[in-house]
Protein 1
Amino acid sequence: MSAIDCIITAAGLSSRMGQWKMMLPW
């Protein structure tokens, strides 16, 4: 994986985590 791929993957994971946090009731 190149640095750009790592950045894109990290950004995707962070955005998904943000959605999960918003979905959690607590």
Protein 2
Amino acid sequence: MKIRLNKYCDSPREFIYRYFLKFGVKFPVCVKTLYKWIRLGFYGFLKQNLLHRGKKYKTKGKSDNRGKLTDFKSVWDIENKK
């Protein structure tokens, strides 16, 4: 298990699927638990070996514009426009 996650950089989801294909039974731990173990460093799992290094989202060099107002007028401008 440590070799699949650390050396081959499989994601926990891929590891669980490969386990199911090889042994034909469901893996006894869920994906969230495996990610938690990787984050906490249990059993020698390394977060650096994950595909996105444990980050939730990967932006492709784009700036984040969520929650920013573009067409903005202040209260001062609206009151003094009269």
Protein 3
Amino acid sequence: MSDQGLSAQGTAQRRSVIDTLEIDVRLLGMLMAFAAVAIVFTVWTGGTFVGPRNVFNIAVQTVPVAIMACGMVFVIVARHIDLSVGSMLAMCSAIMAMSQTAWLPSVFGTEYGNPAVLAMTVVIGLAFGTLMGAVTGWLVGYQRIPSFIVTLGGLFVWRNVNWFTTNGQSVSLTDPNLLMFGGTEGVLGATASWILGFIAAAVAVWGIVASRRNKQSHGFIVKPVWAEAVMAGLIVGVILFFVGWLSRYPIPTAKLKRLFEARGEIMPEG
């Protein structure tokens, strides 16, 4: 497929670069609007807005919202609503927190911080979240109860069960294995981050190539090779730039001081 198409009369019609790359113009408009907002706040804050520390904090805080948003897309597309999504998230968090800090260590007699406990905690959280979603879906899909009623009830039920599970108290998670995945205390580190970044880039390229081959096998029109290469380069560039930018985030002073104290040393000034 070249960068020219055929019009209704059969004459050659040149396509724009955006059309050839098959970029959604609406998505491009949103990205441009976001870039404009980012530029304004960057100038206003003297560069702090796009600094590694702020981007790191935003990325960590956005994860739960992004996960919920991905699930809510399917609910909204089906012309339903889920008012209990926040309460269900809190309930899963409470179950996982109590499983990691109290229930699993007491049942298996393991110490807090055991990697096996963390793995089982993730499985328990996924299973419990799936169960709650299945119950909601069964009531809405098979019992024909309006989603507004079901999820409104779920909002109050799961919120109160959450409070009962934790006795209304905050559960502190200090497992170093958990903190490696982000937060205020720990990260994976530069080496592991770059490894994951290159793996993600390789998966993205493989996905583009596999999608192209699948379209060709079914006789669909595909983009030119150069267009596929440009899109792959953009995606890989964004992934690696994001990893490199976050890797510039220095270790917080308070944590660095604790590391020196753990080794019996005094942190030098500056």
